Amino acid sequence: MQELISQFTELKARLEEAVAILQISKLKSEQAELTKRSQAAGFWDDQNQAQQVMKQLASLQARVEPWQKLQSQVDEALELAQLNDESVKSDLEKQLVAAQNEMSQLKKQLQFSGPYDQLGAILSIHAGAGGTDAQDWAQMLLRMYVRWAEQQGFSVETLEQSPGEEAGLKSVTIDISGAFAYGKLQSEHGVHRLVRLSPFNSDNLRQTSFAKVEVLPKVEADANLALDEKDLKIDVYRAGGHGGQSVNTTDSAVRITHIPSGITVAIQNERSQLQNKETALTIIRSRLAQLQIEQHKEKLAEIKGPNQSAEWGNQIRSYVLHPYKQAKDLRTRHETSDVDGVLAGDLNPFIDAYLEKQLGNPTA
Known about the structure:
The protein has helices at residues 2-21, 24-38, 47-81, 89-106, 131-151, 181-185, 273-295, 308-311, 339-343, 348-359; strands spanning 121-127, 155-163, 169-177, 190-197, 206-217, 232-237, 253-258, 263-267, 315-320, 326-329, 335-336. The chain is of the alpha+beta class.
C-alpha cells in the first residue's frame, strides 16, 4: 500500500505543477466572472455579445473542468490509500492507472498554455522575391494549409486574396476555425523556402522561391484589446475584381487603419460593408494580439507597429524538391524526405516537434 501512496503523491504533485503552468486558478476566476455576467438581467438584449460570452464560457469550462475533476479523484484516492485498507487496494490500483492515463491525455494541453492558443487562426501568405515562381509557391502553401485544416476537421474561409499575373497568388488570407487552431499553427509563422526545377522557364532551371506565412490568433472580442473608435481611420470604397473590373456596385470594400500602431487592413470580399468591417476589425485585433505576445506589452498604447522587413530574415523551413527531396525545419531540426506528403497537408510531425521544443516537457 505504501507504494500506491507514493505513486498517488507523485501524481498529485505533477498535477499541481501542470495546473500552475496552465494558470487554472486564473481561468476559474474568468469563468466565474463570465458566469456572473451571463446571469445578469438583460444579458441577452445584445445577442451578438451574449453569444461571444457564452462561447468564451464554454471554452473555459472545457479547459478547467477536466483538471478539477482529476485533482478531486486523485485527492480522494490518496486519502483512501492512506487508510491502509488492503481490501480496496485492487480498486485503488485501477484508479491509479486510469488517473495516470487521464493525466497523459490532459498533459497535451500544456502545449497550449498561451493566452490565445485555444482560438481559431487567421493565416496569411505573401509571395516573396521570385516572380511567378514565388506566387505559385504561395498557392502551393495555401493548398497545404487548407488540406491540413480539413484533415483536422477544421473549417476554412477565404477572407481576401490577390491573384498573380500569370499563376499563383501574390497574397491570400484565410480564416481557420477549430479548437486550438492558433496554438497548433503558430509554429508556421515565418518564411518558407522552396527549391525546385522551375516550371515557368524554358530552360527548366533550379529556382529558389520564398513566401512569408503570418499566423494570428482570431480575436473576435477581448476586453484587453478593445478598440477605441477615435484610434481608427475607416475608409469605404468600391470593390474591384481581378483585372480591375467592378465586382460590386456599392461601396462595400473597407480599409481600416489602427492609428497608434499603424496597422492597416483592407477587405473587399463580395459581402456587405458591415461584414467586411467586422472582418477587418477582427484581423486588426488579431494583429494587435500577436504584437502583444511578441512585444510583451500589456496596454495597446504601448504596442509598436510591426517591422515587416525584418520578418523576411526569419526563415523557418526549407522544402527541397530538386536535386533531392527533403523538408526540414531549421528551428527543431525535424526533417522528412516525404515532401509530397508534407505539401499534401501532413504537417503534424513538424507542429508536434515545435510544441515539444517550446514546452520543454516540464511535467515529465
